[in-house]
Amino acid sequence: MRDFSKSSVAVLGAGKMGGILVKALIEKHRLSPTKIRATVGHESRAHELSHKLGVAVTTDNVAAVDGADIIFICVKPQVVQELAEQIADKVTAKQLVISVAASVHTSQIEGALGAGVPVIRAMPNTPCVLGQGMTALCKGQYVDAAHVEDAAALFNAVGRTVVVDEKHMDAVTGLSASGPAYIYIILESLAEAGVKVGLPRDVATLLAAQTTLGAATVVLETGDHPALLKDAVTTPAGCTIDGIMELEEGKLRVTLIKAVVKAAQRAKELALG
Ligand SMILES: NC(=O)c1ccc[n+]([C@@H]2O[C@H](COP(=O)([O-])OP(=O)(O)OC[C@H]3O[C@@H](n4cnc5c(N)ncnc54)[C@H](OP(=O)(O)O)[C@@H]3O)[C@@H](O)[C@H]2O)c1
């Protein structure tokens, strides 16, 4: 296992996603808190966040990247260009830049940082906070196999990782980065349904969440097609088929497909502001 405990790491934009990565990578013992320098946009947030995350937090991006081995860019897509231009003088080809910003292409970041700088785009999701994340990685033109291994090792510590071509990153954004929000709505609805049929809310929420986790685990562990697994639950003339008919009438499938398509389309535009 690659040891990053001596690596200096800059996390530029320690908001929701940057903060989750700092917290989770420290908890999973992949990064040392004393070697992390994080930044935010507003001075007023720096002190409180430093206390919360247990790492140094400032608003000085240039100082943060100076001498760092790995630089995470975690600001909003519209801020990436300005940020990259700001740090360009201090970034060299010896450092690895990992951007989690949706929509912003590796070529844009390379263009702002200068030729030769290895840039990896990562698209994680919020369950990284408990080591159950899903992250897709794609590589820029100056990235070699060792860089990809390093990025994968970091994100594997907080969930699963897949490497894709850059052309798929907006699709990934619409599916697995936005996905937790869709699943929370489904979970909330199932719990509400449990309440409707008489269950206490806490029991209904537990049943819904563990059922979702269980079904997802079976898909991941067996590799079986979800349709086959669904068939195994659906006894002829039983109750599940009645429930499925309601889902089909309510167009759950097409609604979910349309949600991912819309989110992926929006992901293409984000960098434009
Ligand atoms: N949230 C997700 O589920 C998710 C998933 C995958 C990828 N992402 C990507 O992660 C990035 C951040 O999203 P988020 O949800 O974490 O947003 P967020 O909570 O608003 O975080 C953005 C952070 O950037 C800081 N910031 C703004 N301008 C800065 C500057 N010039 N220098 C340094 N820091 C600056 C902000 O600080 P202040 O608050 O002080 O302004 C804030 O801490 C986005 O590019 C998004 O596409 C997010």
Plain-language structure description:
- This protein has 273 residues and is an alpha/beta fold.
- It has two domains: 9-169, NAD(P)-binding Rossmann-like Domain (Rossmann fold), CATH 3.40.50; 179-272, ProC C-terminal domain-like (ProC C-terminal domain-like fold, Orthogonal Bundle), CATH 1.10.3730.
- It contains twelve helices and eight strands.
- It has helices spanning 16-27, 43-53, 61-65, 77-87, 106-113, 145-156, 169-177, 179-196, 201-222, 226-233, 240-249, 252-269; strands at 9-12, 36-39, 56-58, 70-73, 96-99, 119-123, 133-139, 159-163.
- Strands 3-2-1-4-5-6-7-8 form an eight-stranded mixed sheet, with helices on both faces.
- Helix 4 (77-87) links the parallel strand 4 and strand 5.
- Helix 4 packs parallel to helix 5 (106-113), helix 7 (169-177) packs across helix 12 and helix 8 crosses helix 9.
- The model has no long low-confidence stretch (mean pLDDT 96).
- The structure holds NADP nicotinamide-adenine-dinucleotide phosphate.
- NADP nicotinamide-adenine-dinucleotide phosphate (NAP) binds next to helix 1 and helix 4.
- NADP nicotinamide-adenine-dinucleotide phosphate binds next to helix 1 and helix 4.
Features:
273 residues; alpha/beta; Rossmann fold; ProC C-terminal domain-like fold; eight-stranded mixed sheet; 12 helices; 53% helix; binds NADP nicotinamide-adenine-dinucleotide phosphate
Briefly, what CATH class of the largest domain?
A: Alpha Beta
Mean pLDDT figure? 96
Distance between the termini: 39 Å
Residue ranges: pLDDT <50 for 5 or more in a row? none
What's the story with the biggest beta sheet? 8 strands, mixed
CATH architecture of the largest domain: 3-Layer(aba) Sandwich
Helix-and-strand structural type: alpha/beta
| Major beta sheet, strand line-up | 3-2-1-4-5-6-7-8
Beta fraction: 5-15%
Global shape: elongated
Contiguous helical run count: 12
Small molecules bound: NADP nicotinamide-adenine-dinucleotide phosphate
| Annotation, overall tally of beta strands | 8
Write the element-wise H/E pattern from the N-terminal end onward.
EHEHEHEHEHEEHEHHHHHH
How many whole angstroms does the radius of gyration measure?
21 Å
